[in-house]
Amino acid sequence: MGLVITSRRTTHTEGDMELEEMFDSSVRSAGDFAGVFEYDGETGYFYLYDMSREESQRVLAAIRVVGTKPDFDQDSIEIKWDKAERRVGLFIRGALWAALTQRPVPASEETMRPARSRRSLKR
To answer: Which domain holds residue 32?
Structure first.
């Protein structure tokens, strides 16, 4: 299936600066979707992967989590699926930072309404 590594930490130097890379993942029990966090030493993203697709086309969704040196380390990261395994979350130090769903979430009626102008709110 690919994506066997569930946690990885590597360190490399760029110039005189040491950068730590982080990687963590959690594959759903059916083996079809995975939540993946990757920090390359500069930017960190949380991805939803479709494991049935070719490796270059697996990313279904992405959320940018960090764009600078993070204030957390590999041991602070946990990726968990909800009980129904429809949503996957990235937890850092126990707090939910990002969540993705494996199928589209229908917009509620409230989010589908057109925005009101300031004038209509004053009435």
So the answer is: 7-122
